[in-house]
Amino acid sequence: MVEFKDKLPLGLCCPLFEKLRADVCFTDIQICLRGDEVINAHKVILAGRIPKFHGQILGPILCMNKSETSASAVKAVIKYAYTGKIEIHEDTVRPILIVARQMELTGVVDWCCQFMTERLHPDKLLEDWEFAHHADVPQLRLACFEMMQTEFTQFVLSPSFPALPFRDFLSLLENDDLRAVDEEQVVEAILKWTSASGQPARLEGLHTLLAEVRWGQTEREFRSQLAEQSILNSHKKCRALLSRVELWISWPRSRPGRQAPFKERPRKYAEEELLLLGPTYGLAEGEWSACIYSPQAEETIVTSCMKARPDSLIVSAENGRIYMLGGRVNNKWTNTVREYNVRTRRCRPVAPMLEQRRCAGACAVGGEIFVCGGKSATLEILASCEFFDPKRNVWQLLPPMLRSRYRPAVASLPDKRLFVIGGYNIFTGPMTSVEYCTFPSNDGSTKCSPQNMPASKDFWRNAAPVLNSYTGRAVCVSNGKIILGGGYNGQDGFVNEVEIFMPPDSSNPQGQWTRISDMRHKRYLYHMVACSRSIFSVGDLGNAVENGQTVESLGLPLNLQQERDGMEPRGWTDQKPLVNMRYVCGASAISRGIWKDRMVAH
Fold it and tell me: Which of 18, 107, 150, 158 counts the most CB atoms within 10 A of its CB?
């Protein structure tokens, strides 16, 4: 439940009004509801507070007893008219929104939309989308459509996706802002939607959907395999389209004077930008800003004056949500957690971690947040692990790691394998060991409680150790590989070394680490982010005087074919240093579509 209120609630100025209504004193109008319920009210309050009644001559009785009008929602809205406050929760938000629209209370409508938007989830997205259409709420409809775009991967896996109407799916595919892994995923989504059980008529529109694929971003091998599929072979228009596509891509000489059979402009899903958290110049002590970094311009301040969370772990999850885990509040270590929503520019508290941790490791695994190791409140080095499920707002234990460690690097792969790398242990010093697990299912079928907790040796497995034992390293994942860099040890001090890890598979059961190009700057306690086919290394809290505002990037192979051909990364390049930020406390890649249309003034 969330309470919304006016900037200056009427109930705060004149609390007697609501008491007079409740005591049926001086009331001059009765509102008839479903089920023969009646609300007594004052015409002057209704006319002054509810736009629908402005300028109307109200009689002694007002009927609001239609079948689609919720009695409890009317009561809540009338109470809001008297108090300036309204409580909204998931069971009441829709009927309140409908009544608020009928009464032209745009502020309450906006609150309901905000409430629903912050709780949108791909699994029930179509339900919210259809409600927004039925209730004619454009801002909610837009929020649903944006989530379909930005969370396309998860939406395609949800039960809502096969029920998406043709026109809506076509609109989604036409949009440049569609956030897919690649165009091959878009094709697979089209085939999945077309093959939905009991929908043979969908084949008629298959060629129209396929025409919206940006075929120039697909691989020849994929197109060849696609042409052999029976569902496409049996469809004359699809065969013709694929033939024209292949001719256009493979035989450029055939193009003069002709129009491409598909959109050649790439989608904006590749257009990610860096979101940085930390103090900017001019802010008071104890405040942070959220900024978008571009190598071509100064940082753009998206949100200013959020409460600082020094020494917290900052993790980016799905749908533009950033989590600040632990850290210090009023100079005391805490297990509390705050969520920053890039879409709404708001922070809110969520469930605290089960254990207080400092110098722990953390990363996002799909929509969930994993945290492990660190030091306890009694300075014990921990092996314990836990994860946060935002849907249920709960933390849940996982089996302890094979080794206790603090300041480990943590990364997850798309297949939900989770790797904990290096760190520090009081007995061994800086560590080279690596262990990994397969993250439990988030569908509720896998639960690790103290009663059924798997043994650590059955849950965690060893992987190939890193080449060097440093702490305070940064890590990111790109194209299914783990990239690890920087760090510190007592002998070599700060380092600029970078390693890349090929994860375990059948040919190499422990995986393999390989040294690649060194960074241009030695870094410790910094941030490494995969963003728009580059790896960015940002800031340096360990050596802030020299490197705290520096940024450099490592160019990656431009496409899958170059990667298959073994093309090496293109080397590290210095980028424009930070101008507005004093230092960086957190960094992540964010889709431009999530934040750009809600920009606030610099």
Answer: 150
* 567: three-class secondary structure by DSSP: coil
- Whether the CB-CB separation of 347 and 338 falls below 8 Å is answered with yes
Over residues 152-180, the pLDDT tens digits come to 888 898 888 998 999 999 999 998 888 88
Burial class of residue 88 (count of CB atoms within 10 Å of its CB; 0-12, 13-18, 19+): buried
Q: Let me know if domain 2-117 sits in CATH 3.30.710.10.
A: yes
Residue whose entry in the numeric block shows the structure tokens 């919210």: 128
Strands (E), 313-470: 313-316, 321-325, 328-329, 332-333, 337-341, 346-350, 361-365, 368-372, 385-389, 394-398, 409-412, 417-421, 424-425, 429-430, 434-438, 461-463
pLDDT at 251: 77
Q: In whole angstroms, what separates CA 541 from the centre of its chain?
A: 26
CATH number of 165-254: 2.60.40.10, 3.30.750.24, 1.25.40.420, 1.10.150.20?
1.25.40.420
Q: How many residues does this entry show for the chain?
A: 602
CA 214/CA 250 separation, integer angstroms: 15
Single-letter amino acid code for the residue at 582: R
Asked if residue 582 has pLDDT above 80, the reply is yes
Report the C-alpha gap between 420 and 434 in whole angstroms.
6
Among all chains, which residue has been given the structure tokens 């909204």?
Answer: 88
Mapped onto helix, strand or coil, the DSSP state of residue 486 is coil
- φ and ψ at 345, to 5 degrees? 65, 30
Measure the CA–CA gap between 405 and 422, rounded to whole angstroms.
8
Question: Which residues, at least 6 apart from 566, have a Cβ–Cβ distance to it below 8 Å?
Answer: none
Report the pLDDT value the prediction gives residue 198, as an integer from 0 to 100.
Answer: 67
Mean pLDDT of 587-600: 65
* Alpha carbon 517 to its chain's center: 31
Task: Using the Cα atoms of residue 114, residue 117, residue 118 and residue 119 in order, give the sign of their dihedral.
Answer: positive
Lowest mean pLDDT among 183-197, 323-337, 398-412, 531-545: 531-545
Is the pLDDT at 602 greater than 50? The verdict is: no
Where in the chain are all domains bearing CATH 3.30.710.10? 2-117
What residues does CATH 1.25.40.420 cover in the chain?
165-254
Q: What is the pLDDT of residues 128-137, one digit of tens each?
A: 988 998 888 9
Spatial separation of the C-alpha atoms in residues 155 and 153, rounded to whole Å: 6
Q: What is the pLDDT of residue 10?
A: 86
Using DSSP, state whether 323 is helix, strand or coil: strand
Residue 561 has pLDDT above 70, yes or no: no
Phi-psi region for residue 257, left (φ > 0), alpha (ψ -120 to 50) or beta?
left
What is the distance, to the nearest Å, from the Cα of residue 543 to the centroid of all Cα atoms in its chain?
30
Which CATH number describes the domain made up of 271-598? 2.120.10.80
Pairing outcome for strands 332-333 and 429-430:
unpaired
- Other C-beta atoms closer than 10 Å to the C-beta of 542 total 19
For CATH 2.120.10.80, list the domain ranges present in the chain.
271-598
User: Whole-angstrom Cα distance, residue 88 to residue 204?
Assistant: 44
| Paired tokens of 301 | 């301040």
Helix axis angle for 220-227 and 183-194, nearest 10°, is 20
Report which of 330, 328, 352, 329 is spatially closest to residue 339, judged by C-alpha positions: 352
pTM check: above 0.85: no
Amino acid sitting at position 543: N
